[in-house]
Amino acid sequence: MTRPVRSSAVSVALLAAALLAPAAAMAESVVALRTIRPQQVLTQGDVKLDPATIAGAHDKIDDVIGQEARVAIYPGRAVMRGTLGRPALVDRNQVVELIFDKGGLVITTEGRALARGGVGERIRVMNLSSRTTLFGTVAPDGSVIVSQ
């Protein structure tokens, strides 16, 4: 024959389990300390961690330090994902070296960047010789590796 469990015994068991379970870590959000202008690279003095949890905001300062703001971020506002990117190495209208390398054939010429871009980003460029618009990936040395 089974004995019915009293509700106070269940409450005590649940309370004990809750006290013994590890506490959930509180999430934090990265917040701007001062106005951050577009194209500004973030430094340690620009941001801080705030104990509030804001959906879509960065939660680690290391993820934002050294990144470039794509839009203005105002003091006290959370630094949202998608508002930062790699620092631009190539500016719009800058003359860059275009490199096409396929199957042992290497063609190098000058081009004009039609967008800003950081290392590894795909941007549009115009070949200055033929006036053809192409896409390429920004290389660490500032040249653009043309894909077509």
TrEMBL record:
Classification via InterPro entries: Flagellar_FlgA (IPR039246), SAF (IPR013974), SAF_FlgA (IPR017585)
GO cellular component, one term: periplasmic space
Domain SAF: 27-85
Signal peptide: 1-27
Entry protein name: Flagella basal body P-ring formation protein FlgA
Keywords: Bacterial flagellum biogenesis, Cell projection, Cilium, Flagellum, Periplasm, Signal
NCBIfam families noted in UniProt: flgA_cterm
Highest taxon of source: Bacteria
GO biological process: bacterial-type flagellum assembly
Xref: Pfam families: ChapFlgA
Family label: Belongs to the FlgA family.
Function: Involved in the assembly process of the P-ring formation. It may associate with FlgF on the rod constituting a structure essential for the P-ring assembly or may act as a modulator protein for the P-ring assembly.
CDD domains on file: SAF_CpaB_FlgA_like (cd11614)
Compartment(s): Periplasm
